[in-house]
Amino acid sequence: MVGILATSLVQSSSVTTSMIVALVAAPVNPLPIANAVPMVMGANIGTTVTNMIVSLAHMGRREEFRRAFGVATCHDFFNLMAVVVLLPLELLTGYLRGSATALSSLLTGMGGMAYESPIKGALKAALEPIKHLIGLVVPSEQVAGIVLVLLSGAMIFTALWLLVRILRMVLQTRIEVIVSGAFGQHAVVAMLLGVVVTAVVQSSSITTSLLVPLAGAGLITIERAFPITIGANIGTTVTALMAALAATGVNATAGISIALVHLFFNLSGTLLIYPVSRIRGIPLAAARWLADTVAESRRWAIIYVAAFFYGLPAVFAVLNNVLK
Question: Is the pLDDT at 207 greater than 60, yes or no?
Answer without folding.
Answer: yes
